[in-house]
Amino acid sequence: MSQPSGERAFPLPSQIDAVPGAEGWEEMYPYFSRFQPEDDQRFWFYNSMHFPEVVPAFDGLTSEIPYTAIGANTARLFSFPTTLGIEYRILNGRVYITANPVTDAGKIEERLAHFQERAGHYYANWDRLYDGWQGRIEALIAEIEAVEVPRLGELDDLSVVMESRGYASNHLLRENFHRCIDLYSKMWHHHTEFLMLGYGAYVVFFDFCRQAFPEIGDQTVARMVAGMDVTMYRPDDELKKLAALAVELDLADLFVEGNEPDKVLSGLAGRGDAGRRWLAALEEAKDPWFNVSVGDGFYHHHLSWADDLTVPFAALPRYVEQVRAGEDLTRPTDRLAQERERIADEYRALLGSDDEKAAFDQMLGLCRQVFPYIESHKFYCEHWFTTRFFQRIRAFGALLADRGVLAEADDVFHLRHPEVEDALADVQLAWASGGKELGARHWQPIVARRKEIVEALSRWSPPPALGPVPDSMNDPAVQMLWGVTDETITTWLGGEELDEHTVRGYAASPGVVEGVARVLMSVNDIGSIREGEVLVCPVTAPSWGPVFGKIAAAVSDIGGSMSHAAIVAREYGMPAVVGTGQATAKIRTGDRLRVDGDRGVVTILR
């Protein structure tokens, strides 16, 4: 790989070598997602937070649609003064992004006037508008749950004729598939409606604190809004109830570290009324609270707890043990709330005027009002809705497999969504004519080749960034969510000399602990985590919360002080260092670590 000229530069997109065995990968994604020659002049970074793996062809929709919605809300609806939207490109199956700033002073002032009117309306009426959002998102979930895949029998159902419906069931194949795509797009617009405003309120408060208190750390600002009771933690709360019930019903012996879910379930089935009561409670908790993905809702193969019980059942032995010991399983929300008041009082006292104190109180109050949404929305959007979305697409895949077009249901995720429509049209025509679908000889070789491409691309190590380095990385949202700062870029370029036993990142959650490392490169391996280990991973998802109760600390490659991993770690009162950029490369499973969540330093002791 050749390098661009200049000291501070990453490889240009055009200079990335082809991956052997992955020739033709570009066909998996739409033309507008590929790097263009002019993109060499811009800085891009790898969004490994949301896309830590190769993106299969259908899953390319999970970058296209979210960035469509994010940009529409920030740039066109609420007119954020200093930023437009996010552009994305896919290179060798990996998603790179760049933010489009507004730099013209006159344009910023013009946009600010619109922002104050539009965002001000939302901030002033937050609770009422949020209630409206809640109703809309639950209605969308009901809609996606109601989408059906038509059954195509020898004859259409008699009711179609007797009720004079006017169209045969094969018409519904593409209409209902389209409905899924349209609902997914609408969900993401709802998703970002409040989200960017939540970040906006925090960014304003963050900037105020950095100017008023130059020495204040990112974590200290974040701790002033900690101690939230949000919906995203409800699945974990349901697990704790199930653990308590297991103890009450004398079933604790079945929940043993390392025991596989199937073995536990079969054991429960043989325990009479007690086992039946526990299984009934499990089924009640599943809908909706187990519709939470083991990932972050961007990959079809990151299954929900309801589809794969590995994650919740990995957490249950620890919870059962804690209940038997009489320990308190609740998160330290009250302690965090007291601590946030203490910190806020200390910094308020440092302000020189009543006006400054009033501004501080107003901004902090708004942050606390809007910030719970930043976590709560994830359950409804990335998890509950998206779980149902992928289940519906998989059902269309099952129909294509039943009709012989695809070899198996999940092969549908190796087709782009317009290609799925073509495959469904093939079925529509064959059923209507009495002929045979022609798609097997067309699609099955394409799917087989794309599986080979995904496997080849998974062996590629993507650069953390591409293109020329900007003079300054001062976008606070990029800093707080992804942890990309001037210091991060220096580390990526190898400019910071650290010994081989030290990893630096963001001090995301306070505390210092020692423990043995468990390096997980895939969410699918989360069941292997053992009590007291230090989780080391590219990125965590909020749905990993239950295993936070059994680990000593968390360390991630990506993430800033307001990333979901950082927020969850603080709410669970567990030390964390995020945004290291290199933890998974330098640390091995079995290494003994010291994690300093106060300073953002991880030391490999042996």
Automatic annotation (TrEMBL):
Keywords: Kinase, Pyruvate, Transferase. Residues 530-600 form the PEP-utilising enzyme mobile domain. Pfam families: PEP-utilizers. It comes from the Bacteria. This is Pyruvate,water dikinase. GO terms for molecular function: kinase activity.
